[in-house]
Amino acid sequence: MSAPAADSHGRFVSYLRLSVTDRCNLRCSYCWSCHNMRFLQHGDILTYEEMLECIGAASELGISKIRLTGGEPFVRKGVMGFIEAIRRDHPAMDVRLTTNATLLEGVPRCLAELGVRRINISLDTLDPETFLRITGRDFFGRVRTAIDDCLEAGLRVKVNAVAMRGVNDHELGAFLDLARALPIDLRFIEHMPMGDAVPWNPAEFWSAEDILVEASRLAELEPLERDKESSGPARVFSIKGGAGRLGLISPLSNHFCGTCNRLRITADGRLRTCLFSDTEYRLRPALRGRGACRGRLARIMRRALKTKPVGVELLRARKLGAPVALRRMQAIGG
């Protein structure tokens, strides 16, 4: 594995988010829109073999951590075999997943046996009726069981909740109780307008600072130093008397672009250097065209990295309430 490559702003890249599919079995209100919804055709999605080539090229840039995302990664057939192949071909790679956990029955122990140590589970509410209203599916019980199963298998669990005023803000106390009882990282993520034509209501915006003020009334919190092992964007707080921790991710109100260390590859093989930039670099020709090779992929990635923008500068140029990216999050990859 090579030393990490740097962009023109001196930020070193060490983290790749790879979307294995744009499909999802939930219909979350903040992600799904019936307007102009289309999924990728089978031939447009990278094969697992092509994804392995992308991971190999990323490794040449010094990337040491990969997160598999979607859509929902477990709706794609063969994803466990793909994880096994990553661990076989890149044993030093830190492999992680983000999932809605509705399809994890019997999976956590297998992940642990493959060497996966961390998993992020999306859960915006602890109320089954609200879960049904947000996601369009009556799967709350599956997700709650999956959290326990992952912990029992020895996986480190982060529970990600999109913070929404009038939707789940009244559940803050219940979420904190969950983090007191279980050794999880509970993370609230500011709601962003992601994707053209996806519904966005500014009144639902619940800032990280407001969450912190309200959480401090409900629990004794102590800020922790940034976890150098994960180097993520969350500000993390211990909860006195609790087994877990509280994390706050603030992409809109308090950006973390100065320390961004990631690249994204979509399921159709497009490289994105910034979540907030719609500039994409096509990798499929380097995978399927004449002269396709890993070295060519790595060169494309290096050139793209040199023009990696500072996302907050793009956000400031957009109108208030405009989507931060034209692609939906489910199509970008988590």
Task: Please estimate the helix content.
Answer: 25-40%
Binned strand content: 15-25%
> Structural class, from helix and strand content?
alpha/beta
**Which stretches are low in confidence, meaning pLDDT under 50 for 5 or more residues running?**
none
Instruction: Provide a count of the helices.
Output: 11
The Rg value, from CA coordinates, equals 19 Å
Spatial strand sequence of the major β-sheet: 9-10-11-8-7-6-5-4-3-12-13-14
Outline of the structure:
The protein is an alpha/beta fold and 334 residues long. The protein has helices at residues 48-60, 79-89, 108-114, 128-135, 140-152, 172-181, 208-218, 284-288, 294-306, 311-316, 329-332, and strands at 5-6, 12-13, 15-19, 65-69, 94-99, 118-122, 156-163, 185-190, 221-223, 235-239, 245-249, 262-265, 270-272, 281-282.
